[in-house]
Amino acid sequence: MLQLNDPILDALLTELAVSEGLHVINPATQETLISLEPSSLKSVDSQIDACSVAQKEWAARSTKERALLLKRWFELLIQHQMALATLMTLEQGKPLRESLAEVTYGSSFVEWFAEEAKRAYGEVIPANKVHQRITTIRQPVGVCAAITPWNFPLAMITRKAAPALAAGCGMVVKPSELTPLTALAAVHLAHLAGIPEHLLSVIVSAQSSEVGELLTGDKRIKKLSFTGSTRVGKILMQQSASTVKAVSMELGGNAPFIVFDDADLDQAVEGLMASKFRNAGQTCVCTNRLYLHRNIKDAFLAKLIPRVEQLKAGNGLEEGNSLGPLISIAAKHRLEVLVEEALAEGAQLLMTPQSLPGHFMPPILLDRVTHQMDIIHHELFGPVLPIVEFTDDDEVIAMANDTEYGLASYFYTESLKRAVRVSEALEYGMVGINEGLISTEVAPFGGIKESGLGREGARQGLDEFLETKYICLGDL
Asked: Which entry of 111, 116, 177, 250 is annotated as an active-site residue?
């Protein structure tokens, strides 16, 4: 039986375990961790119904009371961070230190929105008639649904649920069927904190299409927040149109990482390592393409290659391993095909990759990649890095923008003039200048173009779950 040495979460897992059901697999070992009873479509309907009742009661509470309960949830997440991180590594694969970092990051959204709950301000607007008074107030959207991915099984939930609850909304969460345990544990802690059980609940199901169709078509759900692929996001948006449902979409990425010839190369290497190889390259904001100025390319690679060679793939619970497994064999095979095609088109391996078993994949650096190669235009989601040489600022900006995605981008320079010009020219929702890790609860996270709609985190994250009501008082 799966044990975390945490009495509260171990009791939860014991309660959830069934002999036959949805199997949760450890991608590092291929072992079944636990079997869960899947949610039926009928039970999902009941969850939505119960959430509708609970949401009205929750919205009637004071913002101070909602904030207090969110703060208690934050404290419980931190109190149980080691068990949550261990559970995350077991079902998702990332190294334990990265899982611990995600618990800290994910919890930060709960703390932030506990504070922002009290700041859903309206306005007093000068009226154009002397006998009128015009005001606006902010009210919760209502019952919301969230569909979240496997790569950040805690943070992708708290980044949505915390602002929804802070605004006075309720939420049903459909986590990936590959990583439901972290979601169940986090929501259980929310209930222990005093957040009503029916207000925030989890759907456990491998019927992603059926559940998605149910959630998007249900008129009781007023908003859908989704993190995942652009392809699926488009389907959910189309389905949501039938009920004119509000949507937030955090979709695919194809992040460029540009190193100009005046960059601090040591700093740039550190930023690239953090951006590219975290979670084995399985993040929506990780570096997807590396652009090196011709003048510094050889010097940069001379510093980068030894760092990449130090990466060690293995079970995330074992000390010293820095690359966890890919989420599936299919993901690994897809990358291997893209690498083979690039090599056939003239790309060159900078390191001889080690053959690894199972879901594990070694880091692969591909030099002499051109912008015409297919690998440049795919979201790789793995430890494969194509390298493109450039000589001119306008040239590299054009190449960086040559994608339907517009989520995150990065570049390194010591020139203030270039920093301003390039950051404004890059067609991305987020730009990191001399920084490879840009995600934080205090800044708005989100993309443009086909990378999505809306923002998560910061004060803008609360806005996503609030409606603005205009009130005109006349005859004064």
From this structure: 250
